[in-house]
Amino acid sequence: MFSLTKLPRPFLDRGEGIYFYDETGKRYIDGSSGAMVSNIGHSNPRVLAKMKAQMDRSTFGYRLHFRTHASEDLATKIAEMMPEGLDRVFFVSGGSEAVESCIKLARQYALAKGEDSRWKVISRFPSYHGSTLGTLALTGYDPLARPFDPMLRDMPKIAAPRTYLDRDNLTEEERGLKYAELLRDKILEEGPETVAAFIMEPVGGASTGALVAPDSYFKRIREICDEFGILLIFDEVMTGAGRTGKFVASEHYGVIPDIVSMSKGLAAGYAPLGAMVAKGEIVEAVEAHGGFLHGYTYSGNPLACAAGLAVLEEMQEQGIIENAAKMGDLLKARLTALMERYHFIGDVRGKGLLLAFEFVSDRDTMRPLPKEWNAYLELVELAYERGLIIYSRRTRGGSEGDHFLVCPPLIITAKQIDELMAILTEALDAFAA
Ligand code: PMP
């Protein structure tokens, strides 16, 4: 297989709950749910049985030839779990496809309203929205985006609130408003008549290390989008499906976006699945104007949808989202306590079980550790050797900095958090030695 990593890794044998086992029988705590995917844990027998039942009937039916109960039931379930008004669902096979779908829907909506000049989608840095050329044009993460310059057409970007780095006398609320005004400034600079949408991760993902914006940011962003008739897109590929302790992260902020992308936790690693969820009025306008010019061969695949439905049923029946909120608070407190012991941990942040800590050489200035240390790789290896998987990146969006995501499956128990913390502490001790 085309080499995806330079690191030697063992062959995976099986997954069970929050654990993985390699072929030698060694056990690992999946402390990052893969790439923040496996929200309900591995090899859940109830989910596998429901998938098997679907498999026995059909694994494929092209969406233009048949409706399927799997996709319609899943769409109904998602609409039920979503905030008010977000009730039109379009299925895809992953996160990048979900974000592409949001961009194309926003642009077709502008066309449907006769606003042909609105083609831009403003995004933020740091941010990650996917690996296709369309989503990369929105991604504010230079190491992945710049090698593909010139982009098909790069999109305008504004800075996301990285308030933990700010050394000013503002309150959190004032900082949130200050960063939101960057959107207004950018819209005016670009010309409001050229902007179709603004896209953001409600809690930052892999490129940012679980950045959380002040509450005041969200309300103001919504107001600014409304002022200029610009659609608000939340990329909930990572945050959606319970990861932050709510079904979607927008629920924390009392703000309803116009379009949402989801993937990762939706089928939680049981199948490749993503979804775009939009307000009815947007979809209806596009449908009345020739229909949505978009779709993939595997859109609405019945097996993937059966997996997604089984995952969401499991979440509801087992109270998994509530557990994510509770265990998230516990794990965050335990990670924060590490700051007393390790002076090089400069920040602990996140929501629910989308948590991260960041290394610094000095907490006053929040200067990162020297680049040559490759701390982000070293700690991950020290933890891996000891049977804990965490996820790291050397970036704080354009600037350097080592951050680590700790995002176990949402089914984790308090006892398993003890286990995770014991291994993490051993790895940090070895790093500090
Ligand atoms: N958006 C966000 C917020 C993500 O975190 C990711 C994946 N890390 C994507 C989009 C792209 O998803 P995929 O890798 O499934 O294409």
UniProtKB/TrEMBL annotation:
Gene3D superfamilies from the UniProt entry: Aspartate Aminotransferase, domain 1, Type I PLP-dependent aspartate aminotransferase-like (Major domain)
Domain of life of the source: Bacteria
Alphabetical UniProt keywords: Aminotransferase, Pyridoxal phosphate, Transferase
GO MF annotation terms: pyridoxal phosphate binding; transaminase activity
InterPro entries: Aminotrans_3, Aminotrans_3_PPA_site, PyrdxlP-dep_Trfase, PyrdxlP-dep_Trfase_major, PyrdxlP-dep_Trfase_small
Cofactors required: pyridoxal 5'-phosphate
Family according to the record: Belongs to the class-III pyridoxal-phosphate-dependent aminotransferase family.
Protein known as: Adenosylmethionine-8-amino-7-oxononanoate aminotransferase
Organism of this sequence: Celeribacter persicus
